[in-house]
Amino acid sequence: MEKIIILDFGSQYTQLIARRVRELNVYCEIHPFNKIPAMDSSVRGVILSGSPYSVRDQVAPRPDLSQIKGKLPLLGVCYGAQYLAYAYGGDVMPAPSREYGRAMLTVGDKDDELMKNLPATTQVWMSHGDTITAVPANYRVLASTEDVRLAAYRIEGERTWAIQFHPEVYHSTDGTQLLKNFVVGICGCAQSWTSESFVESTVRELREKLGDDKVVLGLSGGVDSTVAAVLLHKAIGERLYCIFVDSGLLRKNEFDDVLESYKHMGLNVKGVKAHDRFYGDLAGVSDPERKRKIIGRDFVEVFNDEAQRIKDVRWLAQGTIYPDVIESCSVNGPSATIKSHHNVGGLPEKMHLKIVEPLRLLFKDEVRRVGRSLGISELLIGRHPFPGPGLAIRILGEITPERVAILQEVDKIYIDALRRDGLYDKVWQAGAILLPVKSVGVMGDERTYESCVALRAVTSTDGMTADWVHLPYEFLAGVSNDIINKVKGVNRVVYDISSKPPATIEWE
Ligand code: XMP
After folding, report:
1. Which helix (H) or strand (E) holds 105?
2. How far apart are CA 69 and CA 449, in angstroms?
3. How far is the CA of 433 from the centre of ligand 1 (A)?
4. Active site residue: 168, 254, 306, 366, which one?
5. For residue range 62-118, what is the model confidence (pLDDT) as tens digits?
6. CA angle, 265 then 269 then 271, to 5°
7. For this structure, is 341 an active site residue?
8. C-alpha of 483 from chain center
């Protein structure tokens, strides 16, 4: 399979370069600059990313590019461009004024392969404190902005280009065209990496890898595990054993509804009701991290008990996706744990199974596209993310079956209303939180003293940052009214208007 390699110098935009390239239906991989992979015949070209470093820093990344530069098409972006100047005889200095934000690029050489089909002037996005001040004689300037003469250049006599702006960000109006000029025009990639081709090649690879072996997979009702299951099912049919654990912490009716759709999709799935165990172990626990740990442990144990009943199972399938893979081997190292995510982290060691991760090369939106091309219903594919520990981390304070039932009712009213008013798909994630406070209210002629719930709705692309959604007042008014009138035990509704950071999406 042909591919583009992106060498990561730690820029916040590196993943975005990969997405843009993949949107052109060209497969690419991100590798840290200090672990350059072998440049085998499948590599059509290399992109050097930006970086938080200055090339002049003592500790700045300075990889050896001798296997790449002059041998393969190469594009340096921002730091990448500065490195290609600095390391080969040019000069990079602090910019007289820092170059951040919008700038107008004037294309000097319209016939250059990288500049093809760009307008004479186009908006680009700059983000650097240094600037290239001198380049060797065989570096030819292709485009400039008012402040940056060497905004784009190429090295004559080799297939190396460099740009100091960021084509991958939305504000670089013709950035996609420029990347297309590189990956398609210059590198000659065929743009044949589509959901359909991914499904076809993955199913083939899974069949080869798994042979007649049995595989077990934990379904969660979420997009990733569902798509992973359907792909594996397509490859090995009934030899895929799915387990769907009901912790009693799912949304109202979710276990039955989702189990039904899994069966409908032909999956070999076993639902395991384990409310009592989870409720029992969580009784009296209010500390968020302890809750997470207990749920994680119980989940592993319930799953394990069930998996052991499958004779001769060899593999554990997981719905790991590409951001998790990059995160765990990034130049910055795995990021600090703010909340311990449980998922199925503890399973493999305990179970002595080999791991298979059919989605480990895909971004979330690509998983959705693959899901659609596999014919999975929009109701499953379009679902908001839902945390592994479920409603437990939306019930602040102690978890009791009664409090779970209250939150399930509230959540259902809220989510149904979002769907009814066409807002569900405009929101990245929404949910209700049951607070550990009671407040005074009045209903009819009577004083009430009942719980308060918070509603949360956020926009995001990956959950790393998020903003609260400006839901219409009339909508909030209607939902609040419905909740207070219909859910016994709740007499107050508030709306969460915090962004992430500094808040997080979940309250615990
Ligand atoms: P936070 O609250 O950290 O959440 O802003 C970011 C995203 O991650 C989800 N989340 C989890 N997902 N297991 C999961 O599978 C977990 O333990 C977990 N904790 C938070 C959260 O719902 C949001 O989408």
Report:
1. strand 91-107
2. 71
3. 14
4. 168
5. 999 999 999 999 999 999 999 999 999 999 999 987 778 899 999 999 999 999 999
6. 120
7. no
8. 32
